[in-house]
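Service request form, structural biology core

Requester: graduate student, group of Dr. S.
Request type: structure prediction, single chain
Budget code: on file
Notes: please return the result as structure tokens.

Sequence provided:
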Amino acid sequence: MIGILALQGDVIEHANALAARGIPCKLIRYPEHLEGINGLIIPGGESTTLTKLIRLSGLEKPLNVLIKSGLPVWGTCAGVILLSKGGILECVEVEVVRNAYGAQLDSFVKTGTFSGQQIQMIFIRAPRIRKVNDSCEVLSILEGHIVAVRSGNILLSTFHPELTDDPIFIDYFLSIIRASCKSPTSEIADPVATVKSSGRKR
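Core staff response, request fulfilled:
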């Protein structure tokens, strides 16, 4: 089961992207909702608002504990800010510049390369990853700027893969979850098989 931090931002978009892959999700609003998840998505939104809501909901400490203990987590856009140096969760040694590409009206779409394949990258008031340390693997660079990195169990993308129909990035996150699970659930181990089996007659 994958959790989506559901305090603010493009929660539904991530849920729909997972549903398209046959992956169940759980909306996370309070600490008790974290039980039973084996992966977490921190969606894009407004980072200052998300920071306040994380504190108000009591999620700051349990999220830190889970992520630092190895829970796979994927942060997009504002999620990158929360997980990076100076953010409320600060679980990865990455320095970012907020709203580096301008305001909402300056949003844009570019074609970039990820995992050796061309994908659409949608940037909406996106941060820019300025600096990473040696523990980070740079996964994608667009026009000289780092737009996706991985540090152990933490995956960051300054763009929004959940807003496209391309499953490449989401499948990459699922592979991190599968690798982290000692006893993966069938939904995570084989999402396609799960979709097919759900329609079988008994």
